[in-house]
Hints:
Layout: H1 4-12, H2 15-44, H3 53-59, H4 74-78
Amino acid sequence: MLSTSEKEEINKTPEAERNGKLVLKVRPLLDPLWSFFVALCHTLQEGENELTAADAYWLGLIDEVMGVKGLSGHREVAEYAPDPPKPETSELQVEKPKDSSV
Length: 102
């Protein structure tokens, strides 16, 4: 969000004052987005709405939608375990005896 010169200026600021200066630079850029987000959340709490779980996922209101492929959450990433290796088959396979009663 900041230009290279603004980043350099903030990095040159003493550590104790750095966060305050960063907030002063970024806040005017984020205020409109924050206002929209708060208004959206307030509207969604009033009565019924047609917001689907997928819509809520894409708006960042929820982390995961169960049962929908492609909408993976942090839990899926954190719980990932690779598939176990397939057991090796021996090169010599025993043939079943043929039925000789025919």
